[in-house]
Each structure stands twice: as structure tokens, then as C-alpha cells.
Amino acid sequence: MTEPSNAATAATYGGVLPAHDRFDYSPIHARPDYAWPNGARLAVYLGFNLEHFAFGEGMGACIGPASPEPDVLNYSWREYGNRVGAWRCLEMFDALGMPAATILNTALYDHCPELVAACVARGDELVGHGHTNAERQGVWSEAAERRLLADCRERITRESGQAPAGWLSPWISESARTPDLLAETGYAYTLNWCHDDQPLPMRTRAGTELWSVPYPQELNDIPMIVGRRMDAAAFAQMTLDNLDEMLLQSAAQPLVMGLALHPYIVGQPYRLKHLRRVLERFAQARDRGEIWLATPGAVCAHARAAHQRAAA
């Protein structure tokens, strides 16, 4: 038997590993304490993802095996969210008096502006989410990525009358410079990082503060329902279990719980039934003062103010 070469057996890393330098390690129990509005210890928000996809090309989630383009099955399944599922979700949000963060592709202004207008009329926060989820930004040049961030912010401001404070990259795709570019193009927070249960500041190359607000990759219908094939009842129960546990944990620290929803998934009638069970429980917890039902922008602003008071 031939012995493996030294190159094949040598360790790749030794000592301190490569790091991002965006923030330092900080254990959850060693931070300033504060409360959310009305004394709540747990902030909860809905991340309502409205997306549009190129026909016959590009990326997109699949409910069935991907076919050669044009992949009509998977394209039309996603389009159901904009035509039907999103409207059903908005009806439910309205019935429960529930705010949401509309995380939107700016391609929606060309495709279905009525849907964005309905979210604006509700008073929802608008969060930048690229132009389309048919592509990812992390592989682009710095100039192209900067142009995407600036163009999305300008269009949302022009079309809807509110400048987005937050950003979620399509497919959570970042380059090494994305946080720097976000701060330099006027964004206050990012939802890309899922490393914590509290909003925390990040460092940028210009010294401008950019906040990270927790965005869920577990309480998220794409990785759980599409990726892990979890059924709607199990997803709903998982969400309620998470709420119960975080309510207990929040006695020690103020925490944030997001729920990421895509209407082409949860807007399907048999899944919507189970989402209603979750949101009714959220509404009950809100009415009892157990949670602060908010938007990520409001969560970021409150946490920043709390940190400033603690530093002073």
C-alpha cells in the first residue's frame, strides 16, 4: 500500500483561524440588559418575503424536480404567491392587527405593483431584497453590488415613499464587502447574519455602524418545508415550541424571534390553516403583554438606543 503524501495529510489550519472582524465574540449572558416597549422581554416580527423570478432562466426554489427551462411547474408554483398566497396572508395579518416587514424584490414594481401598494397601505416596513431572487449578489464586482444596493434603495423610496433601513440579500448571498457597501449606501441594518438572538452592531471599513438584526434560518419556510420536507403542521408546532422556549429564556435577556414566510409556500390553503394557528398565538401573547410584536427596523432602533444608554 502506498503511504499518503505529506501534502495530503498536512493540516490546513493551525492556530487562530481566518476571521471576518465584523464583531467580537460575545456570550449572550454578558451584555447590557434592557426591555422592549411595554416591558416585554421578547420581540417578535414577521419577515414577509415577496419575490419575483425570471421566466425561463435564473435561480428559484423548487417544489418539484427542476426541469429544463422553461421550468413551468416551479415558476408557476412560485408565482402563485404573488397572485393568491400573499393576498391571503395579508387578509390574515389584517384580521389579527399584525404588522409585518415586507422584504421585497424591486422587480415587483414592474410585475405586480398592486401587491407592494397593499403592504404600504397597511403601514408595513419595506426591506430591500435585491431586484430579483433569480440571481445572487455575492459573486458580483464591488461596483455592480454597490449599484444594486443604491438602485434598490432609490426605487423603493421613489415608488413607495419610504427609504428602506434594512437589507436581506437574495439567497443570503454576501461578498466580503457587503456590510461595508450597505453602510455606505445608507442602510442601517442587515438581516443576512443569523449568529445571535439579539440585534448587535457590526464594524465596517469606513467606521459607519451597521446593525445586524436576527433573521431566522430555522423558523423559515424555505429551508424547513422545501429543504427538509417538513409538513405545515410540524412547521407550525416548531414555531410555537420556539416561542414558548424563548419566552422562558427572555427572563434573563431581551431576545428577538423572527418568522420568515414566503407566500408561495405558506400561502397554500392547507399551510395557511396552520399559519393561522401560529399567528393567533402570537396575537394572544401580544395582548397579554408577553411579547412586543414589531418590525425589524423598530427592533433595531430600540436596541441601538438601549446600547447608547448603557454606554453613556
Distance between the termini: 68 Å
| Strand-pairing-aware structural class | alpha/beta
Q: Choose one word for the global shape.
A: globular
The number of helical elements comes to 11
What does the largest sheet look like? Answer: 5 strands, parallel
Strand content: 5-15%
Fraction of helical residues: 40-55%
Topology of this protein?
Layout: H1 6-9, E1 42-50, H2 72-95, E2 101-104, H3 108-111, H4 113-122, E3 125-128, H5 142-160, E4 166-167, H6 178-184, E5 189-190, E6 200-202, E7 210-212, H7 221-227, H8 232-249, E8 255-261, H9 263-266, H10 269-287, E9 291-294, H11 296-311
Parallel strand pairs: 1-2, 1-8, 1-9, 2-3, 4-5, 5-7
Antiparallel strand pairs: 6-7
Helix pairs in contact: 2-4, 2-10, 8-10
Question: What is this entry, summarized?
Answer:
Helices cover 42% and strands 12% of the residues. It has helices at residues 6-9, 72-95, 108-111, 113-122, 142-160, 178-184, 221-227, 232-249, 263-266, 269-287, 296-311, and strands at residues 42-50, 101-104, 125-128, 166-167, 189-190, 200-202, 210-212, 255-261, 291-294. The strands form two sheets. Strands 1, 2, 3, 8 and 9 form a five-stranded parallel sheet that branches. Strands 4-5-7-6 form a four-stranded mixed sheet, sandwiched between helices.
